[in-house]
Amino acid sequence: MDPELIGDCVHCGFCLPACPTYVLWGEEMDSPRGRIHLMKQHVEGTPLTPEMAGHFDACLGCMACVPACPSGVRYDRLIEQTRAEVERTQVRRPEDRALRALIFQLFPYPRRLRAMRLPLRLSAGLRRRIAPRLERVNPSLAAMADLAPPAPARIRLPRRVTARGRRRATVGMLTGCVQGEFFPQVNAATARVLAMEGCEVVIPPSQGCCGALSLHSGRREQAERFARRTIATFERAGVDTVVVNAAGCGSTMKEYADLLDGEWAQRALAIRTVDLAEFLVALGPVAERHPLPLTVAYHDACHLAHAQGIRSEPRALLTAVPGLRLKEIAESSICCGSAGTYNLLQPEAARDLGNRKAERVLATGADLLVSANPGCTMQIASAVRRLGAGPIAVAHTAQVLDASLRGLTGVP
């Protein structure tokens, strides 16, 4: 924990209404200001107790406090450092250790995620009947069963997608872990949209995890290993710009130079990471947009809006589609409760935040919920089902653009 970064906090309280856990519970130690106070106590000699670790674990890492802070406190870096310290010093309960081992030996590995396709073929109704029983045994396993989307059809992406018309750029595309295995249709739509806008798209095979889940949970060594592998993968592909369609991945990859040391930090700087919406707005449109008569509610993924500062770009892309009506979601800056692995490690708080977000989404009366992060998509869809409102149609910004560019009558 960096004492200088801790000292930047003047305890003004502007972060309090931006913090989801403070909004839920109103507890000072579950606000950014309170957690920074605990960090200060620790660097001044107070041992890191299980109670203190519990307050750090309860943080979603949503970064809503960072843009809200008038003093420019880098809470994002502080909580990453603190979580690494928690993981290094705390001996967790056996069941907690087992759950974390399961998560971090499964989700960052696409091939292992692929093995979950068979269980996911269970009908949604059956999985929802199982979830209440699991709730009594292990709330985290119940959350995992309830969150999982239906098993998608396998989509094999080519290694290279040729630009339509005049080639305007050559870019690499990150396929991701959860995105690639649970939402391959989003990756396929992303590649088509980029190609229709004049981009040659390079998709290296056998991509691994970018390190986002590990970094945000204090597993720094694992995150560094994944980061080095990701850099080497795109170096071999011969691209210096990588387009990312998952908010958490993009946020982490943009910070590779700070995560890594020496030569690897320099190699990280040589590869530019851009979010899909950010890239398309800067590139400018050339492909014709066809009408889509839809009412869309756009959800701001935390690691896109707060960590990367990308808010207007997705909205600009959506409102440029003829016939599409964009609806804003109340409390848009409050996290939905997904937050990487948070909805598995802190299922009760995540459920409360998910229900809160789902109520705001449903209040818009939109036909379609659009998000730029797979975790958010699963979290909000699960909460809508839990509220008994029936399934809600969900899509990524790329899928909406893809449908409009191809002249489809709706978003598949």
TrEMBL record:
Keywords: 4Fe-4S, Electron transport, Iron, Iron-sulfur, Metal-binding, Repeat, Transport. Binds 2 [4Fe-4S] clusters. It is an enzyme of class 1 (oxidoreductase). Residues 1-29, 50-81 form the 4Fe-4S ferredoxin-type domain. One of its GO terms (molecular function) is metal ion binding. It catalyses: glycolate + A = glyoxylate + AH2; (R)-lactate + A = pyruvate + AH2. Its EC number is 1.1.99.14. Its cofactor is [4Fe-4S] cluster. SUPFAM superfamilies: 4Fe-4S ferredoxins. It comes from the Bacteria. PROSITE patterns: 4FE4S_FER_1, 4FE4S_FER_2. Component of a complex that catalyzes the oxidation of glycolate to glyoxylate. PANTHER family: GLYCOLATE OXIDASE IRON-SULFUR SUBUNIT (PTHR32479). This is Glycolate oxidase iron-sulfur subunit. The lineage of its organism: Bacteria, Bacillati, Actinomycetota, Actinomycetes, Streptosporangiales. The gene is glcF_1.
